[in-house]
Amino acid sequence: MLRHLMTAMFTTKLLFTPTAIIMSALLRDIETAANEKLDQPLRDYLNRGAMDDLTLRANREAFSRLRIRPRYMVDVSHRDLTVQVLGHTIRAPICVSPFGLNTAVHSNAELDTAKDQFGTIMAVSSGSRVTLEDIAGAEPSLHKWMQLFIYRDREVTRDLALRAQASGYKALLLTVDMPVLGLRYHNQKNNFTNADNRVNYEPYGAGARVADNATWADVAWLKAQVDIPLVIKGILTAEDARLAVDSGADAILVSNHGGRQLDSAPATLEALPEIVAEVGRECEVYLDGGVRSGADVFKALALGARAVFVGRPVCWGLVHSGSEGVKSVLEILYTELDNIMTITGCPTVASITPSHN
Ligand SMILES: Cc1cc2nc3c(=O)[nH]c(=O)nc-3n(C[C@H](O)[C@H](O)[C@H](O)COP(=O)(O)O)c2cc1C
């Protein structure tokens, strides 16, 4: 479908209309067009990382450095990009990372993303401007996970987790890489705050601050509070992957918060192999951070990720053209992954192996 549209746009010279740009261009064009709509403080808030952006850049550089080893003369006439994530089949191994956006970046971010016209998993941020119940009510068929933290008042953690479970969220995504906010100097310089995204916390007051005394014992405790799977987000070492699994984690999302927390943290693609080696036989491992093309998805899968999550590209799609933009971003990644799989001799996701890197 996308391919037909692209061909039609080229041949009918529609290439430079806004719709045509989004359907036919690379993700970079959507990024550029989205950023042109934002002023400097918003661009910085969305795009930049902590301190000197070392980890932000490292995420991209790690993907750029890695090459793909293609295998030819394989029957790739029928391809299947579907994959199972915690038992749920999705169209392709491409999911949506949680993000708390400022109203000025996009006025309807949560609900537009939740429309999910692509058919994947959306991780909803606890830092949204729409309650988790309202998102669930608006899009009951959306396959959603709820991102949360361990809070100073553990009852807040428990209550949020139970609210998510009661509202039909299929997993909890516990972010562990933010005992304190990373130093994002650009936001300070720009006098930028994101105070409008605490609606989920309204019932709780001061106890809903992220805890800086959380330990793996809290993970084991949280696991015991709910019946839905618990995924740990923000793991960057084999040691923590082991502790997470031993504390009851059902899956791990290798993440450095898109370079927004610890500057000098490893690129996620660099961290992935040691984590897969440590726990990959016991649980699913996912990755986010710097995924910008189907080739990037392929590389992460070849290194053992079950699926990837994308953050900023979805935000760019939103800023560009709302839910249509989100769909387009995911469709572009899908089309590129399908193309790469075809050229490398991989008709299924399972046929992508370490020998391809
Ligand atoms: C604007 C923005 C807001 C974010 N908010 C959250 C959040 O509320 N919770 C969280 O766990 N991660 C948050 N993240 C991190 C993302 O979930 C994800 O780890 C990161 O964006 C992935 O990297 P990528 O943007 O390069 O794809 C945020 C990222 C961005 C860009």
UniProtKB/TrEMBL annotation:
Enzyme Commission number(s) of this protein: 1.1.3.15
Catalyzed reaction equations: 2-hydroxyoctanoate + O2 = 2-oxooctanoate + H2O2; a (2S)-2-hydroxycarboxylate + O2 = a 2-oxocarboxylate + H2O2
Top-rank taxon: Eukaryota
Tagged with keyword Cell membrane: no
CDD domains named in the record: alpha_hydroxyacid_oxid_FMN
Signal peptide: 1-16
Binding site for FMN: 98-100, 125, 147, 175, 233, 255, 288-292, 311-312
Pfam family, one: FMN_dh
Enzyme class: oxidoreductase
Boundaries of every FMN hydroxy acid dehydrogenase domain copy: 19-357
One Gene Ontology cellular component: peroxisome
Residues at the active site: H257
Residues reported to bind glyoxylate: Y45, R184, H257, R260
Keyword line: Flavoprotein, FMN, Oxidoreductase, Signal
Sample GO molecular function, one term: (S)-2-hydroxy-acid oxidase activity
Required co-factors: FMN
Similarity section: Belongs to the FMN-dependent alpha-hydroxy acid dehydrogenase family.
This protein's name: (S)-2-hydroxy-acid oxidase
Native species: Medioppia subpectinata
